[in-house]
Design goal:
Strand order of the largest sheet: 1-6
Number of helices: 9
Number of strands: 14
Radius of gyration: 22 Å
Bound molecules: zinc ion
Distance between the termini: 28 Å
Oligomer: single chain
Helix content: 40-55%
Largest sheet: 2 strands, antiparallel
Shape: globular
Length: 307
């Protein structure tokens, strides 16, 4: 089995365990740190009927959203957007970020998706952006290459550049908005950006030549590098919810159970570097932990990989 060449942005650990959704969870600190674009495409193509049904629902909800927008009906727009995001994640559960692991978090997340869609939908600046994107999109020309119609490079990259720049701008103001503060935990900005651009790439790749496809993936920071799974020393721990055996490499604090999509603690206590007394390991391992006994700040994961 080959997996994406990957180093955790939190602790520098390599990816060890196989994964089944586009989201890569670190096997050392449990952080959610990257997206594997290729798995995203697999999930999309897995069941053609689901994808087709989703596309029809989407077209219907978007045209009704447009009508609500034209009538200035914010409430109707909100409910349609909520329904749209719900239909997206129910059709493709693999796309739901692994940090959203309870019904409560899902409800909070859908609410943020719907409210922020209303904000941008009714904002004149974003309406102008959307119109410009539409214009660029309709200016892309296609020519038949073999059995497939392929988009012309210059038209497509004018669209892609514009899409990336407005997505960046939108992300920045979204993550600065205190109303959406919960999103820093649920879906950190860099990953959210990757998720949005991954959806864009997924929609366009079939219409790009191989050269343009590579150029797009490089531009969006999606690496195509894969490597064999590393075999490290470690132990098998049992997932407390589904009871399956999870491989925890030496030095690991948290591993992710792909079966029930939950992060599982490998160790519960550590000894303070200064006084040696035992302390509990918190959920967020990346943060400094003040020793309960002597108050010295301990850092669990940074020294591990010499970063
Ligand atoms: Zn890590
Ligand atoms: Zn499990
Ligand atoms: Zn201490």
């Amino acid at each position: 089995m080959r997996i994406k060449k990957f180093r955790c942005i939190q602790c520098g650990g390599p990816k060890i365990n196989p994964y089944s959704t586009p989201y890569i969870m670190c096997d050392f600190c449990g952080a959610f740190t990257d997206i594997d674009f290729a798995i995203g495409i697999e999930a999309w193509e897995q069941d053609k009927r689901t994808t087709l049904r989703y596309q029809m629902q989407k077209a219907d909800l978007l045209s009704r959203s447009q009508a609500a927008l034209a009538q200035g009906d914010r409430d109707a727009y909100y409910y349609l957007q909520r329904e749209y995001w719900d239909s997206y994640y129910r059709s493709f559960p693999a796309y739901l970020p692994p940090t959203i692991d309870t019904d409560e978090k899902y409800a909070v997340y859908l609410e943020v998706c719907a409210v922020s869609s209303v904000e941008s939908g009714f904002d004149p600046k974003w309406q102008k952006y959307a119109a410009h994107q539409q214009l660029l999109q309709s200016s892309v020309t296609f020519k038949q290459i073999g059995a497939q119609a392929k988009a012309d490079s210059s038209g497509f990259f004018a669209l892609a550049d514009f899409f990336v720049s407005i997505t960046r701008e939108g992300m920045r103001s979204f993550y600065e908005d205190p109303r959406y503060a919960v999103m820093h935990q649920l879906l950190p900005e860099t990953l959210h950006f990757k998720m949005k651009t991954s959806m864009f790439a997924q929609a366009w790749l079939p219409y790009l030549t191989d050269g343009d496809g590579d150029r797009l993936l490089k531009m969006l920071g999606f690496s195509n590098e894969y490597e064999e799974i590393e075999r490290l020393d470690g132990n098998t721990v049992e997932c407390p919810s589904c009871r399956c055996g999870l491989f925890a490499p030496e030095g690991s604090y948290r591993v992710f159970c792909e079966r029930c999509r939950r992060s599982v603690a490998v160790k519960s206590r550590f000894l303070c570097v200064s006084c040696g007394s035992p302390n509990n390991i918190p959920d967020r391992i990346g943060d400094a932990i003040d020793c309960g006994q002597c108050g010295i700040a301990n850092r669990l994961i940074v020294p591990y990989f010499g970063q």
